[in-house]
Specification:
The structure is a single chain. By secondary structure, the chain is of the alpha+beta class. Helices cover 29% and strands 15% of the residues. The strands form six sheets. Strands 1-5-6-4-3-2 form a six-stranded mixed sheet. A three-stranded antiparallel sheet has the order 12-13-14. It is globular. It starts with 23 loop residues before the first helix and ends in a 10-residue tail after the last strand. The protein binds adenosine-5'-triphosphate. Adenosine-5'-triphosphate binds next to β2, β4 and β6. This is Protein kinase domain-containing protein.
């Protein structure tokens, strides 16, 4: 496989080989050489892939910390085994690594974990991806592993950074749909910024391109768009759905699927509360400083809009970025912005206008003064209701037994695969919790139908999957 090269621009940069003839000069200028590593160099840099340098394990293989260039460059090396053709799981892993190289060699962004280079060693049947090293764990750790509890400001910043990265991917000259947005695919860099990682399931091209139309649905249960049932259903709005789930996770601090909650699926749990305007009930009570009511309301309504069952009605990522930008300004306490915001809060007309701009058609009913801890209701066309509650009761999230949380794994569809644990995985300790793997056979091009609960997927054939859209 030949991999074209990109430079590092502030926006996403894409090199599409199909466009090379048209803009070869421009392309030439934009290309920057990816490094081709040899195996020994990476073995040395990871101390022989030692346990001390082990960072984690994903569905494609293991990840190690590497010290390169005499200590000047820290990197993460993702190692996958090239296996026999009849090994479904490993084939799928290799396909995902190939896909990740293919996409990351064309796309770069400051809020993404970018590719530095790669190594293919046929003798050892190994492929290695060398990406930027992120020393501060995953967003999943920051949200769900006490004592790390992110502040509201930090959560909003991370949500905005990821929204910007996803928007850049969607709006690139040759768009990219990530298909696996989730908190464990967001890594935190040395400066505390959130970076989007793991492009193993991503697809590059226009949704009408043949290769996109023929790729079976894939993603992670709990984050997967329920309207993405067949290859033809794929649009950028599937990423918007996953981002909405991520936003709910950021607001609430609960997992996308958590059996200690009823309903266990975060969308089904949060939506009724948001519709009733009970924003405090979805807030992560572990954060000491309460969020401004405007912050939590805007975040919750945006999340609710992102997870709407009708894909077309979801906002696009530019709108999400715009909303999160304004939320960030409010949460940071920018005095000018706060003054403007308070003024609009005090005039129902302005609230109407601003919410209408967000395509939620609201009717504002003001009930009493703020001092009296009263509630104002804002009802949208689709039943999403906002209540501006001056005194917000905080109901703590119930105590969670960690082993009741389903750690979501990517549903691979880059190659042939099957349901069940990886038989080649001798070490399951890295995944302490239950792992769900539902894998879709490419040949059968099975479609995934999510029930109304949106949390549990089952595989259906084309014939049986009735695609009811609202
Ligand atoms: N660039 C990196 N820098 C530092 N640590 C990393 C990096 N990439 C991955 N890791 C660590 O390795 C772990 C495994 O990552 P990987 O992307 O392979 O799988 P995953 O996203 O956790 O799972 P899945 O592949 O099923 O989606 C991560 O949880 C993280 O702890």
């Amino acid at each position: 496989m030949g991999y074209p090269f990109c430079n590092d621009e502030s926006a996403v940069s894409i090199c599409d080989p199909r466009r090379r003839s048209r803009s070869s000069h421009q392309d030439q200028k934009r290309r920057l050489k990816l490094r081709i590593f040899n195996y020994d160099e990476l073995a040395l840099a990871t101390d022989g892939f030692s346990a001390g340098n082990f960072l984690g394990k994903g569905s494609h293989g293991r990840v190690y910390k590497a010290v390169l260039d005499g200590g000047k460059l820290l990197a993460a090396v993702k190692r996958t085994t090239i296996a026999a053709a009849d090994d479904y799981n490993k084939c799928s892993s290799v396909n995902q690594v190939d896909n990740e190289i293919e996409i990351l060699s064309r796309v770069r962004h400051r809020w993404m974990v970018n590719l530095i280079g790669y190594c293919v060693d046929h003798r050892r049947k190994t492929k290695l991806l060398v990406v930027e090293y992120m020393p501060n764990g995953t967003l999943h750790d920051h949200l769900h592993s006490p004592p790390l509890v992110s502040s509201w400001n930090r959560r909003v910043k991370h949500a905005l950074q990821i929204a910007i990265a996803v928007h850049a991917l969607h709006s690139a000259e040759t768009p990219v749909i990530h298909r696996d947005i989730k908190s464990s695919n967001i890594l935190i860099d040395g400066e505390g910024n959130a970076r989007l990682a793991d492009f193993g399931l991503a697809l590059i091209g226009n949704v009408n391109d043949e290769h996109l139309k023929s790729t079976p649905p894939a993603g992670t249960l709990g984050y997967l768009d329920p309207s993405y049932l067949a290859p033809a259903d794929l649009t950028a709005k599937s990423d918007v759905f996953s981002f909405g789930v991520l936003l709910l996770e950021i607001i609430s601090g609960r997992e996308a699927i958590d059996l200690d909650f009823s309903p266990s699926c975060i969308v089904d749990w949060a939506m009724p509360l948001i519709k009733r305007g009970e924003f405090a009930a979805i807030c992560d009570s572990r954060i000491r400083n309460r969020p401004k009511s405007a912050v939590i309301r805007r975040l919750a309504v945006m999340a609710a809009r992102c997870v709407r069952s009708t894909a077309e009605k979801r906002p696009d990522m530019s709108e999400v970025v715009e909303c999160l930008n304004s939320v960030r300004k409010i949460s940071q306490g920018n005095p000018v912005w706060n003054r403007l915001w308070r003024r609009s809060e005090n005039r129902s007309e302005n609230v109407f206008v601003s919410e209408e701009k967000e395509e939620i058609h609201v009717r504002m009913v003001r009930g009493g003064s703020k001092k009296q801890s009263t509630v104002s209701s804002v009802r949208s066309e689709d039943g999403v209701c906002e209540r501006i509650v001056t005194e917000m009761p905080v109901s703590p999230l119930p105590h969670r037994r960690r082993n009741r949380v389903l750690r979501s794994r990517s549903v691979g569809a880059m190659g042939r695969s099957k349901v069940g644990p990886d038989p080649n995985d001798g070490d399951n300790t890295a995944v302490a919790t239950t792992t769900i793997r539902i894998l879709v056979e490419r040949e059968r091009a099975a479609t995934m139908k999510l029930g109304k609960s949106r949390s549990v997927g089952m595989v259906r054939s084309h014939k049986t999957a009735s695609r009811k859209r609202d």
